[in-house]
Design brief:
heterodimer; A: about 230 residues; alpha+beta; Thrombin, subunit H; 2 domains; six-stranded antiparallel beta barrel; 3 helices; globular; B: about 170 residues; mainly alpha; 6 helices; about 75% helix
Chain lengths: ~230, ~170
């Protein structure tokens, strides 16, 4: 009898989480704790009392929000701002948990930007109240992009993550002149991602004599210590 | 009272999942929910309280899936496969009263866990259930196996010493 009751509880839990969007219950319990844990565990500065911690946290948050609003108001984009409440990974495949979900208008494939407007990655999974950000450098993450080179030629290619640690650009024709330091921006060909979002700069160029394409190593320009992000809604 | 204890047990697993995803002090190569599940499975062999062991397997999988970008059900299935292998193969071949055997069992359990996740992720990707494909990292696998098996060994040893009366 007891085992049947337990089994039923498990079925209800599983069903409520994945079928009836019951994660709201757990998210409400867990999100405050998650935000507290995440912010405190990544903060490197030593603070000596609670007031100082609170003050420095509000100050940092305020600065970040001002920066976000600066570029968002300039670009006249619709956006949803989200707190990063968690980070996890398996075999160098990482993801960040954001505290905004379907309810707030977040959809699959949308671009996620840092406070300077640089692309961090895309939304790879959405639940009712949370969403998952897949960073650029994840294996299998692909975004179509353009290069703005010194000769003002616009060239398209695919930016993709490798081994969870680096970003490469593929399918750039070998006859196109690319130099280190050229800017890479989104091309707008992906659904849900606008054109012209900065991704990074060319760090290294690999050319093989018999190939028809060259491969570029990209240095992403987003702030790796992001805590608040903007999700651009097209 | 037992029902309350059971609810507390579920809440504890939920908190472990929250700490696992949000508390960045825990390194990427340590999975505290996995450690908790394996300790419960080892304890089950000793105490015969299969209710708690299976609850930790199922609920641990559900909560890790809840906070995971990987397809829903991946951790859930992985934990069930892990429990099956642990019961059917490892615990029948090794005696968990020996410290060395506990270390070996936890080392192999860590390997089974990682390999199963990797293979299931590949399977889900190729049949179209998932758009996320993880890469294989030998360094990550080895560090995961060493760290997690040592932690299981330490926590299980501590548990045997202080909580189970022989």
């Amino acid at each position: 009898m007891k085992k049947i009751v337990i089994f039923l509880i498990l079925i209800i839990l599983f069903g409520s989480i994945f079928l009836l969007n019951g994660e709201k219950i757990f998210l409400r319990i867990g999100s405050g704790l998650q935000k507290f844990l995440y912010l405190n565990s990544i903060s490197k500065k030593q603070c000596y009392n609670i007031d100082k911690i609170k003050l420095s946290t509000y100050k940092k948050e305020n600065e970040l929000l001002r920066k976000h609003l600066n570029f968002l108001e300039d670009s006249k984009n619709n956006f949803v701002m989200a707190n990063v409440i968690g980070k996890s990974g398996e075999n160098n495949f990482n993801w960040f948990i954001l505290d905004q979900g379907k309810k707030q208008g977040v959809r699959l494939g949308l671009a996620v930007l840092d406070e300077q407007g640089a692309l961090i990655g895309t939304i790879a999974k959405v639940r009712e109240n949370i969403s998952f950000l897949e960073p650029l450098f994840n294996q299998g993450s692909r975004i179509s992009a353009d290069i703005y080179n010194s000769t003002n030629q616009e060239v398209s290619g695919i930016v993709e993550g490798r081994f969870g640690s680096m970003v490469k650009m593929k399918f750039v024709p070998i006859d196109i002149s690319v130099t280190k330091g050229d800017s890479i921006v989104t091309s707008g060909l992906d659904k849900g991602i606008k054109r012209g979002i900065p991704i990074g700069k060319v760090q290294d160029i690999e050319k093989q004599a018999n190939d028809i394409f060259q491969e570029l190593t990209i240095e992403p320009i987003f702030n790796s210590n992001f805590r608040i992000v903007s999700i651009l809604i097209p | 009272m037992k029902f309350l204890k059971f609810l507390l047990f579920i809440t504890f697993i939920f908190l472990l999942a929250v700490f696992e995803t949000s508390w960045q002090v825990i390194p990427d190569t340590v999975n505290i929910v996995f450690i908790f599940v394996v300790i419960n499975l080892l304890k089950d062999r000793y105490n015969k309280k299969s209710l708690y062991a299976w609850t930790s397997v199922l609920i641990g999988g559900v909560f890790l899936d809840f906070y995971s970008l990987l397809p829903d059900g991946l951790y859930f299935i992985t934990f069930i496969i892990l429990a099956f292998i642990l019961y059917q193969v490892l615990l029948s071949a090794f005696s968990i009263s020996s410290h060395f055997h506990v270390l070996v069992v936890s080392f192999v359990a860590s390997l089974v866990f990682k390999i199963t996740i990797y293979l299931l992720n590949k399977l889900f990707y190729y049949i179209g259930f998932s758009t996320s494909l993880m890469s294989f990292s030998l360094i990550h696998l080895i560090s995961f196996m060493i760290l997690n098996s040592l932690l299981i060994f330490l926590f299980y040893g501590w548990h045997i010493r202080y909580t189970i009366k022989k």
